[in-house]
Amino acid sequence: MAANAKKNDATGTPTPVEFNGETYTVPPADDWDIDVLEAIDDQRITHALKALLGEDQYATFRKHNRKVTALGDFMNAAQEAVKAGNS
């Protein structure tokens, strides 16, 4: 997966993130909107997730993930998928 993350970073291609039976796409780490980072810094995880996924994917996430733990677990999965902070 690390090779795919680097390749996607280089081409600007979104990375698929499998989570609880659904597939979401997130932009390469270098393309994460500053709103995502500010929300993470402020520990506003729902805002970070909405900014990262966009309206449609966020609506899908909410439909299938109703527990608080899913928020952090997904953000961790997304960061791992794009190797955020490791480039």
Please supply descriptive tags for the structure shown above:
single chain, mainly alpha, 4 helices, two-stranded antiparallel sheet, 2 strands, 87 residues
Please describe what this structure looks like.
This protein has 87 residues and is mainly alpha-helical. The protein has one domain. 61% of the residues lie in helices and 11% in strands. It is built from four helices and two strands.
Strand order of the largest sheet: 1-2
What's the domain count? 1
pLDDT < 50 runs, ≥5 residues: none
> N- to C-terminal separation?
14 Å
Radius of gyration: 12 Å
SS summary, helix count: 4
Overall body shape: globular
Strand/helix succession: HEEHHH
Task: Give a short account of the largest sheet.
Answer: 2 strands, antiparallel
Number of strands: 2
Strand content: 5-15%
Structural class: mainly alpha
Helix proportion range: 55-70%
Round the mean pLDDT to the nearest integer and report it: 88
